[in-house]
């Protein structure tokens, strides 16, 4: 809606708390349009590739529909947030099988 108020944020972190990656605000706008920080949630490429493909397909279809209509449907945001929740719960589950972290 308004660009002026979101200028203080320049980066949206990956939704997986242990990740540490993120996306720049400019790149976010290119991908998703306006940056609404109330609902802005991002998952990095690496964690996106771990998202169940059924979810990715549903989301891709919703985004295609958005583009065709030239507007952002609320249901698309809902699908996105469901994926984010799923990724966070997967990250928690992963902690039950601790692995030695290797630095990249
Ligand atoms: Zn990540």
Defining key terms:
48% helix; mainly alpha; binds zinc ion
Low-confidence stretches: none
Mean pLDDT: 82
Count of extended strands: 2
- Ions and ligands: zinc ion
Using the CA coordinates, give the radius of gyration. Answer: 15 Å
Count of DSSP-assigned helices: 4
- Widest sheet, order of strands: 1-2
Helix fraction bin? 40-55%
Domain tally: 1
Structural class: mainly alpha
Using the alpha-carbon principal axes, give the shape: globular
Spell out the helices and strands N to C.
EEHHHH
How is this structure best summarized?
With 104 residues, the chain is mainly alpha-helical. Helices cover 48% and strands 6% of the residues. A two-stranded antiparallel sheet has the order 1-2.
Topology:
Elements: E1 11-13, E2 22-24, H1 25-32, H2 45-48, H3 53-69, H4 74-94
Antiparallel strand pairs: 1-2
Helix pairs in contact: 3-4
């Amino acid at each position: 809606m308004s660009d002026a108020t979101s200028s203080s944020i320049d980066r949206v972190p990956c939704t997986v708390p242990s990740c540490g990656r993120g996306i720049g605000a400019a790149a976010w706008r290119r991908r998703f349009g306006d940056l609404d920080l109330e609902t802005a949630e991002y998952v990095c490429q690496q964690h996106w590739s771990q998202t169940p493909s059924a979810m990715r397909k549903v989301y891709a279809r919703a985004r295609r529909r958005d583009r065709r209509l030239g507007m952002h449907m609320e249901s698309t945001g809902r699908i996105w947030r469901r994926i984010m929740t799923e990724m966070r719960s997967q990250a928690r589950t992963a902690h039950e099988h601790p692995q030695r972290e290797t630095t990249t």
